UniProtKB/TrEMBL annotation:
Protein name per its UniProtKB record: Sugar ABC transporter permease
Subcellular location: Cell membrane
Spans traversing the lipid bilayer: 26-45, 87-109, 121-141, 173-193, 224-244, 285-307
Species, as recorded: Cohnella xylanilytica
GO BP terms in the entry: transmembrane transport
Origin organism lineage: Bacteria, Bacillati, Bacillota, Bacilli, Bacillales
């Protein structure tokens, strides 16, 4: 009886421990939670609070409510121009990258030899530093020493070099070309991963039924890659609205003198305007925070819209 009562007490104690609060998972996750709260959550909340103030970073803050947002939307035409430039360059780059990415992935997927080498060569621009990309394209399209103008003049297509970087639409096209060149390999790799996950039985059945290569690609491969296309469209919209490295390095790094926004601000993006308002033209911390939060709202809005447009419709 004594041994039995001891066993009951032991099992009861163990059961109590098992049924009590388990603190170890919370203790192990606490360092990450504290770091996230200190370096991620607090800056986000503080930025919103800062957007409600007028502050130059040195003196005392002056609470002005939503006046920064009102000025941004009613008294700052450059904000809308920067947004327009960003959207135009997104429309130039995203569809081209999607189409070329899936075609290049499909062609690469059919290769029997040299497939890994071809994937590596096409993926290299994606891991190239933005500084190098800005240097390459500023050299290619330079008016005096650019390789593109040299070819154009040699072929007789123009009597003299073209001012590629000083044109309204040519500057945007060059930036869009930079985005396509950099992201094409990434899109290709993602599409190849999706094609690898498609069961080969589907292709074999289509081949037995007499399906041609183009018909198989349009009727089988593309519909099965719909979710990947949605993912790439949404992430491209998010990254496109944050476009900064390409135009900034094209006009601010190698031409000898920094040119904010390009010719007549035709290459000015929302992030570039944010950086200019914060560090270059002035130190308006509150106004810059309002730009950041306005961009956040736009990213959420455009992401939801792009997902609704590209996501497959549920059948009732």
């Amino acid at each position: 009886m004594k041994a039995q009562s001891t066993a009951v007490k032991t099992s009861g104690a163990l059961g109590g421990r098992r049924g009590g609060p388990r603190m170890w998972p919370y203790l192990f996750s606490l360092p990450f939670v504290l770091a996230y709260a200190a370096f991620q959550l607090y800056p986000v909340v503080y930025s919103f609070v800062l957007s409600l103030h007028d502050w130059n970073g040195i003196g005392a803050k002056t609470y002005i409510g939503f006046r920064n947002y009102a000025d941004l939307l009613t008294r700052d035409p450059l904000f809308f121009k920067s947004l327009w430039n960003t959207l135009i360059m997104m429309l130039m780059s995203i569809p081209v990258t999607l189409i070329l990415g899936v075609l290049l992935a499909y062609w690469t997927f059919q290769l029997n030899k040299g497939r890994k080498l071809f994937q590596t060569v096409n993926f290299l621009p994606y891991i190239t530093t933005p500084v190098a990309i800005g240097f390459i394209f500023s050299y290619l399209f330079d008016w005096q020493t650019g390789l593109i103008n040299l070819v154009v003049v040699k072929l007789g297509w123009a009597s003299e070099g073209v001012y590629w970087l000083q044109g309204e639409w040519t500057s945007r096209m060059i930036i869009a070309l930079m985005v396509v060149w950099r992201n094409l390999g990434y899109f290709m790799v993602i599409y190849i991963a999706g094609m690898t996950a498609i069961p080969q039985d589907v292709y074999e059945a289509a081949k037995i039924d007499g399906s041609t290569g183009f018909h198989t690609f349009t009727r089988i491969t593309m519909p099965l890659l719909r979710n990947i296309s949605v993912f790439l469209v949404v992430t491209s919209v998010i990254n496109g609205l944050q476009l900064f490295d390409e135009p900034k390095l094209l006009y601010g790094g190698w031409s000898g003198s920094a040119q904010v926004g390009g010719p007549d601000n035709t290459a000015l993006t929302v992030i570039w305007k944010f950086v200019d308002e914060l560090f270059i033209s002035g130190t308006r911390f509150g106004y810059s925070s309002a730009i950041a939060y306005a961009l956040f709202v736009l990213i959420v809005l455009f992401s939801v819209v792009s997902y609704k447009i590209t996501a497959p419709k549920e059948e009732k």
